[in-house]
Input
Amino acid sequence: MTLRKEFELLPEDNAFLNDYGLDWEAVIDGSQWVLIKNFPTPEGYNHSTVTVAIRLETGYPNVALDMVYFSPALKRKDGQTIAATDGTQEIKGETYQRWSRHRTSENPWVVGRDCLGSHVILIEDWLDREFE
Output
């Protein structure tokens, strides 16, 4: 499989993704998207791995990254509803489930500190916190 690199990432984002150890793509479909393949999910979800999509907002890294998108869509095995996951996004012909998750005033985006890597760590936390 050829991984698409349709635009250049910031050097620190490129280094983070390469160190993270999962295949990834940088694609353009209306916006710039980073797709992280075979992203592991915690026990309790209907899929053990998914593709994670992150939209690089215009103005990034001076503008916060927000939300996360999963393909295939995630559900809890116990049947409980996952809040704010009804939206979808088409990216390169594939449907992604949007998780409407945002930073808070207690955890704001800090220019010069936060980046794609800190957003990925936040995504890991969102997945874990669903079962708290």
Notes: The two ends are 37 Å apart (CA to CA). The first strand starts at residue 24 and ends at 29. The chain has one domain: 11-129. The chain has a mean pLDDT of 96.
